Amino acid sequence: MYAKEKRNSFTSSTECYLMIFLGIGLIFLAFFAKGFYSLNNLMSVLNTFSYTLISAIGMNMIILTSNIDVSTGALVSVVCLFLAALGKTGVPFAVLLPVAMAMGTLLSTINGLFITKMKIPAIVATLATTQIFQGILPLIVEGSIYDLPASFTWLAFEAKIFGFIPASALLCLIVTAAALCFMKYSRFSKKIYAIGNNAEGARLAGIAVEKTVVLTYAIAGALFGITAVIIATAGQRVTTTMGTGIEMTLIAAVVLGGTSTAGGCGRISGTVLGALILSIISPAINYLGISPNWSDAVKGVIIIVSVVLSGARFMKKKRVIPVTEKNSAGGM
Predict the structure, then answer these.
(1) Disulfide-capable partner of 207 in 80, 158, 202, 311 (CB 3.0 to 4.6 Å)?
(2) Where is 160: in which H helix or E strand?
(3) What are 161's strand-pairing partners?
(4) pLDDT mean by block of 10 residues, the chain; 332 residues
(5) Do residues 237 and 253 touch, judged by C-beta distance below 8 A?
């Protein structure tokens, strides 16, 4: 009986629909997108998927608390430039990674403090820090940092698994496995869901809401830092716009994966599928011979449709509750 219920639950889940959609899409590309399944393109998609998913996991945690972060792109750009400045001096990758994570944690924690301590709505606070980060970038660097040494691009060009798989995939695998365990078994994850469902109720239950939100932003910031490392070390030139627009892709991946924009509902597994689908869109459009400008338009449509469907599910749940309560009252 339990196995049957579990099977029915999966077949009606967001993940099931996404897997069907993804399967149909991949079959379509096999017939109509010549060259899409070339090794170089698949490894490029895998690299994009890796850094997208790493940050999407962080964004998922933030959205689960009923908050959001639209400063991620600017944050990633700041970290990328800082890493390039360090890389110019010959600092090895073993140092760049923890530095990026620490810097991402610091900048994202600032967002969390603005939201919790100053009571600024998340969308407003992170829009403000976006402007701050973007305003600072041109003051620090004029255009870009270039002619970076081979030690800086080690991750992208030398760290290959079996000689062709990008090492970023291994980083992604480690982060994803850790996130799945963390969100399933840790007490902290239960607090995240509780806050997203009802922040005041969580506070009355003894959860330190503000501290939890700040820590959630801090953890997400560390993941944004890892993404910055992968993006920055992809070439010998780092510009002030390296992370521009990535926040929309992350939000789309999270919402497409079934996480409610109202918070308190969503799973990492859905975010994995959402990130994979969005990582395929741009190269798929390119190999189909369609203008690349359609890529952002498609992602925008995905965000709108996902938010509408998420809202519909939320309203459906709200309608069910009063009926249950009414029946319970009638039984009394």
Answers:
(1) 202
(2) strand 160-161
(3) 165
(4) 49 77 92 91 95 97 95 94 90 92 96 95 95 84 83 87 91 96 94 94 94 97 96 90 90 90 88 94 90 81 75 58 42 40
(5) no
